[in-house]
Specification:
The complex is a heterotrimer of chains A (427), B (324) and C (286). Chain A contains 17 helices and 15 strands. Chain A is of the alpha/beta class. Chain B has 14 helices and 2 strands. In chain B, 72% of the residues lie in helices and 1% in strands. In chain B, strands 1-2 form a two-stranded antiparallel ribbon. Chain C is mainly alpha-helical. In chain C, 72% of the residues lie in helices and 0% in strands. In chain C, helix 2 packs across helix 13, helix 10 packs antiparallel against helix 13 and helix 12 packs antiparallel against helix 13. Chain C is flat and about 70 Å long. Classes of the chains: A alpha/beta (427), B mainly alpha (324), C mainly alpha (286). At the B-C interface, helix 1, helix 2, helix 4, helix 5 and helix 6 of B face helix 1, helix 3, helix 4, helix 5 and helix 7 of C.
Chain lengths: 427, 324, 286
């Protein structure tokens, strides 16, 4: 009997303790007098988040009446999904960053505060117009660009030299690109198995093949007219070119339909891939790798009708639900100030969104300049459409099926066209 | 007071109640019965409160939402859509593919887990097996790891390059490397292999439990009749394990129809739609295409489908002997 | 004589085959773990290769994994996430065992109107994919004001159909006499439950405790949805932080995964005997 009740008592005790804990564990609230705003960052890595915290500290020192609660939500946690849930639940942060074009989704959902009224003309004019235009929704500025990013061509200097291929400092034509990629696809030890591939890519990311479509002067969706254009001959031709790299010319490593980009980066670092498309933060990563010192460079993507590379921007937005909009704006102003922006871009490798930083000495580094040049000669943004993420979900599987040869490119694009029409039809 | 009542009538009340006859002139017995009922319900209350607030209300809500056209984009003005979200399923080719994929996943994992799990349980149930506990532990280890971590590790095992463990093994055996997760013919198989690995220990453990329920005398009697090893399994073990098998089958089928994490992490539903399961589709529709109404309808359809499936399995299995 | 020898050698071969299969299978089960641990010991760089036996060993990844989160918040280390995971697992497992077993007891032993319906409702909860109710559940938890809190992570999982089912199955196997005796002694249902049923159910409780602990330790999607505050994050969420958009540090990730898996493995190993007993005592005999 006593043993029984001891067990019971212990269990009851545990229960009571748990309940007590739940009551005590009140969400961490802060002192009442100060105005507290919350700031969420979508993405970020430890280093950059440490810097963001530093910037917040500086802000708090300059504005003692405002306290900022900062959360970084890494991309692996699907921050945009979380933001949607928080928006639905009315618990969204006062200020947060998102990856373009998600701001259009939130603006379309009437979740964001227009910022035109807050901004000084001077500040407005300092942002690169292509970024600012990009983030406008229905003619209003709902989001301010924080930094820009572009995917340029990474190349292995040593592998190119060994194969007698010039470096892509000027933009190659598609034909040159194929020729060089073939030259770079080699069986180095003569065992009949290819062990170095010309071009690394992945069917998992639209950003890996959309550039070819844009270089051909086309796109999967005409966002201005809100119509699908996936079976446009120019789209089919470009996708065919991409698929041919894989299936006909065989210049890509095996198994790239669903591969993670990290694997391509790894192959590049190991010298198994000579060329691939990636953005600034990878350049920072590679430049820290002693084994790669002096062996890699960044150049321009190939072109056909025009030059085009996948550009993006992360933007700062203010929630319409915010109860402290004045304080929130103060923070945005400070956070996007040329000084904070320069520090962030310097650390992360991304491109600043304000003109006043153009002459900054840091950006004279040749790799940085290569990205800047790519942006200058041709950078395009992802679909400026509230349903951009849905469009991605539809494009990817069709291209993967064509990549596997389950469908012809024409068939895949026809199917895609139908699915996109269905998606865009809904308000 | 109560004590005496209990002592005097406890057994009788019970008997009377089951016969549907109210004990006459025994107000105390009735009072006692009410008190007893209150007591019983109060014991169940916590569990059903939790269910009510965190499952039943959300389920009803999901049913309700499935009748609307709504998303984060139109949250403030959901439009009543009637059964349109359900009708849409019939015209949605991706829905059909995802149903087929979910069935493929189920067929690819559940029978293998049952057969391998039973085989392992039989092997590890032997009395004089050396290192029995160690082996049981090793087979159970994957069960305790998180699905996310397991999926990450296995996506590297099935890496399509030669560096992947699976391809290294193929190479050692003299075969050509395969595309695994990058090949739509093998992607689902790869996911299934991972998933079998992850849950095998669980199935094995439950079969081990079931094996304990078979009286030893039966085997002894069989041995006297000259029944050999395999026959013993065939004619004694397997039939007697029926209830256990049924339990595992139902749980595993239900579980397999809800698969999400492995496909989401390992392939993102690709290549093409070859590993897009129902929940993958639901997640995409709800959070990427912003069609929450359709996502809710998919959820409701899945729920109804599972109910039907469990009912069919019960009928097929004729498991009346199990008291459910 | 000859035949006996023959049978003997055939038995030996069978025996060898049996062990070979078991050991090979065990190896296959263990390979991903071995790989995970060895990767966690290899110095981290872009060029790490996947090897089963590391050639150069370092603990740097563990240090990095432990301190990783300090970049987001100085006061938060992997220890914080351990503690959070511990709080969540214990607060789910402890109360849930009582709640489930209480309901299981009533369903198994008490006569109440609507018992079948209630039992099927409990079983039905097992059939509802979590993703189905994620959004409505989010809205419910928000109304309760429990977003970004321990309560929010814990409360929805305090009862489970599986637990109720297991306890019910077990309690049905306990002879009625035991309970009747208690009744004759004038015990209330609570007393009977607490002093007779629950102690008998100790092994089943251990089994369920392991299942629940394991499962709550690995909870992912729900906390992912409702927790933003880094101080409240649990281990599985912390692991996703290690996977950036572009740059994954495998060594650190594997170190983190190893550290996150270790506690639950230790719990399993230490409760293994009880667990096996509980499983074999009949709750799962069907």
């Amino acid at each position: 009997m006593s043993r029984f009740s001891r067990v019971t008592r212990r269990l009851v005790l545990v229960c009571v303790a748990c309940l007590a804990l739940m009551l005590v564990a009140v969400p961490l609230a802060s002192a009442a007098k100060k105005v507290t705003i919350s700031f969420w960052q979508a993405g970020g890595n430890p280093e950059t988040s440490a810097l963001v915290r530093q910037i917040i500290k500086e802000f708090e020192a300059a504005n003692p009446d405002v306290q900022v609660n900062f959360q970084a939500i890494p991309w692996a946690e699907d921050p945009h999904t979380k933001f949607q849930a928080a928006m639905v639940g009315g618990t969204i942060a006062d200020v947060f960053t998102v990856g373009d074009p998600f701001e259009h989704v939130l603006a379309a959902a009437d979740g964001l505060e227009p910022l035109d009224g807050y901004m000084s003309t001077e500040m407005r004019n300092d942002f690169y117009p292509q970024f600012l235009e990009r983030t406008k929704y229905n003619g209003k500025v709902y989001a301010l660009p924080w930094f820009g990013t572009i995917r340029a061509m990474f190349y292995r200097k040593d592998l190119l030299a060994a194969a007698g291929v010039p470096e892509p400092t000027t933009s190659w034509t598609w034909e040159e690109f194929v020729t060089y990629a073939k030259k770079l696809t080699r069986d180095l030890n003569g065992d009949g198995v290819i062990d170095q591939y010309g071009f690394g890519t992945s069917g998992r990311y639209v950003s890996q093949f959309q550039p070819f479509v844009r270089q051909n002067g086309a796109n999967f969706v005409d966002e201005e007219r809100n119509v699908a254009t996936a079976n446009d001959p120019a789209v089919v031709e470009a996708v065919q070119f991409y698929i041919d790299l894989v299936r006909t010319h065989k210049v890509t490593p095996p198994g790239i339909t669903t591969i993670n980009l990290q694997e391509i980066q790894k192959m590049f670092a190991e010298g198994k891939v000579a060329l691939f498309f990636d953005c600034e933060d990878s350049a920072v990563m590679f430049s820290r790798e002693p084994a790669l010192a002096g062996k890699f460079g960044v150049g321009l993507l190939p072109h056909r009708k025009r030059q085009a590379a996948f550009a993006g921007t992360d933007v700062v937005v203010m929630s319409k639900q915010s109860k402290n909009k004045e304080a929130a704006w103060k923070f945005i102003e400070f956070f996007l100030s040329p000084k904070s922006m320069a520090e962030y871009c310097k650390l992360s490798g991304f491109s600043p969104a304000r003109k006043s930083l153009a002459g900054h000495e840091y950006f004279k580094d040749p790799i940085r300049q290569a990205f800047a040049k790519q942006l200058e000669v041709g950078g395009y943004f992802y679909f400026k459409h509230p349903k951009a993420s849905g469009i991605t979900q539809l494009i990817r599987p069709e291209v993967q099926e064509a990549m596997e040869g389950k469908k012809t490119v024409k068939q895949a694009m026809d199917d895609l066209q139908k699915k996109l029409e269905e998606l865009l039809k809904k308000p | 007071m109560k004590h005496t009542t209990t002592t005097a009538t406890g057994g009788n009340t019970q008997a009377a109640w089951t016969r549907g006859v109210r004990p006459k002139g025994r107000r105390k017995a009735l009072l006692y019965r009410v008190a007893e009922l209150l007591e019983s319900y109060s014991m169940m209350a916590p569990a059903y409160m939790v269910f009510l607030v965190f499952i039943f209300i959300p389920v009803v809500w999901a049913f309700y939402l499935s009748l609307f056209d709504y998303s984060i984009l139109s949250l403030k003005h959901p439009e009543f859509a009637g059964l349109a979200n359900f009708a849409k399923m019939f015209g949605d080719s991706v829905f059909r593919v995802s149903v087929w994929n979910t069935v493929r996943y189920s067929l690819g994992t559940v029978p293998a887990r049952l057969v391998l799990g039973l085989a392992l349980a039989l092997l590890l149930d032997q009395k004089n097996l050396f290192g029995k506990n160690f082996l049981r532990t090793v087979y159970f280890l994957p069960v305790v790891t998180s699905m996310v971590a397991a999926s990450i590790v296995w996506s590297l095992v099935f890496n399509a390059s030669e560096a992947g463990l699976a391809n290294q093994m193929l190479k050692a055996l003299g075969f050509a490397p395969k595309g695994w997760l990058a090949d739509s013919k093998l992607a689902m198989l790869s996911v299934c292999i991972m998933s079998i690995w992850k849950e095998l220990g669980y199935v094995m453990t439950i079969f081990l439990a079931g094996l304990q329920g078979i009286p030893l005398e039966l085997y002894e009697a069989a041995a006297i009749d000259g029944v050999t090893g395999w026959q013993k399994i065939r004619f004694i073990t397997i039939p007697l394990l029926r209830p256990t098998t049924f339990f595992i089958l139902v749980c595993e089928v239900i579980g397999s129809f809800q698969v999400f994490t492995p496909t989401y992490v390992m392939t993102g539903g690709g290549p093409g739609y070859s590993t897009t399961t129902l929940i993958n589709l639901l997640y995409t529709k709800g959070f990427f295409e912003f069609d929450m109404g359709y996502a809710s309808a998919l959820a409701v359809a899945l729920f109804l489908g599972l109910l039907l499936l469990s009912w069919v399995m019960r009928r097929v299995f004729r498991a009346e002997e199990i008291v459910y | 004589m000859n035949r006996g020898n023959d049978r003997h050698s055939r038995g030996l071969i069978l025996e060898i085959v049996k062990y070979a299969v078991l050991i090979l299978g065990a190896f296959a089960m263990a390979v991903p773990f071995i790989w995970m641990v060895s990767t966690s010991l290899i110095p981290d760089s872009v060029i790490i290769s996947y090897q089963l036996i590391p050639t150069r060993v370092t603990l740097a990844n563990y240090v990095k994994a432990w301190n990783f989160s300090r970049n987001f918040d100085e006061s938060v280390s992997l220890g914080t996430f351990f503690l959070n995971s511990l709080i969540v697992s214990v607060c789910i497992t402890g109360p849930a065992l009582i709640i489930d077993s209480l309901a299981g007891y009533v369903l198994a032993r008490r006569r109440i109107p609507g018992k079948d319906l209630l039992f099927y409702l409990a079983l039905g909860t097992m059939m509802i994919p979590f993703y189905v109710i994620a959004i409505p559940l989010y809205l419910v938890v928000r109304r309760l004001g429990w977003l970004d809190s321990y309560q929010g992570m814990i409360a929805p999982f305090l009862a489970s159909g599986f637990g109720i089912f297991m306890f019910k199955q077990f309690f049905q196997t306990i002879p009625q006499d035991l309970e009747d005796a208690a009744r004759v002694d004038g015990c209330s249902a609570y007393r009977t439950y607490a002093s007779i049923m629950l102690p008998l159910a100790k092994p089943v409780t251990a089994t369920m405790a392991i299942f629940k602990a394991m499962w709550s330790w690995n909870l992912f999607f729900w906390p992912l949805l409702i927790v933003n505050n880094i101080r409240l994050k649990t281990l599985p969420l912390a692991l996703t932080m290690f996977r950036g958009l572009n740059v994954t540090q495998w060594g650190m990730l594997c170190a983190g995964m190893t550290l996150a898996t270790l506690p639950i493995v230790i719990v399993y190993l230490s409760m293994q005997n009880m667990f096996q007993k509980g499983i074999t005592m009949g709750s799962l005999k069907g």
